[in-house]
Every structure is written in C-alpha cells, then in structure tokens.
Protein: Small ribosomal subunit protein eS19
Organism: hydrocarbon metagenome
Amino acid sequence: MTTVYDVPADMLIRQTAEELKKIPEIQPPEWAAFVKTGVHKQMPPEDEDWWYVRAASVLRRVYIDGPVGIQRMRSFYGGKQDRGSNPYQFRRGSGAVLRKILQQLEAAGYVAQNKEGRSISPAGRAFLDGIAHSQREKAAGLAPTLTRY
C-alpha cells in the first residue's frame, strides 16, 4: 500500500493541488489575490494558484501531524521577519488563510474536526494515498539506485 510517506513531498503537493482545483468546495476567496501569507512576508504570493498549493500542503501536513490546530499550523507556515537593523525574529503564518483552507477541506470531506483538533478523514486519507500511488512510479524513476560491491 503506497502512502504519503513513500513519495517526495514536492511531487505529491503539486499533483494534489491539480486535483484540488477540480473540487468546487475549494476556491480561493476574493481577498486571496492581495493577502500576505504572514507578517514575515513583504509581498503577497506571485503564483496565481498559490491557494491550491497551500491547501495541498495543509492537507499533507494534517495527514502527517494530525490532529493539529490552527496555532500549530501557523508555526509550521511561519518564518523569519526582517526587522531592519534589528535581528530577525520568528513570526507565525497567517491564521485566516489556514483557517479558511481547513474549513474548505472540511466541507470537501477530507478533514474532520474533533476535540483534539483537525485530523484527516478516511476520504482524505484515500484521496492522498491514491495520488501517492499514482506518483510512485514517477518517483521511483527519479530515485538513485543503490549498488553493492
């Protein structure tokens, strides 16, 4: 059985983002065109499909780390803020972006909310494992072969 752990994250996230574009529940809100993804960023994302890429990344992160809450996800998507001549400091990512993405993933049936936080649902696990299985052959062709002497 192929799982999310068996394929590289960049391949899985890219393909998952393409599949999430086909789901009507997952749509970027109107404010997504000009919002920053955290106070540590200076500009909004340049990629037009950044919402779907972030949703795919969040879905993978919930699969791996779940159950998780918004604050823990904000820490994962945070970064260093440039404070001019002062030293850089860590700042958490945007909670509104993550909250809206998780709400959309819940509406699609891929994430379930319980007392501990949000965790992957059986439909979400099957969705990601199916994509991982389709990407396994591509990933196997890129992996270096080990030879023993």
Observations:
- The mean pLDDT is 86.
- Residues 111 and 120 are 5 Å apart (CA to CA).
- Residues 122-142 form the longest helix (21 residues).
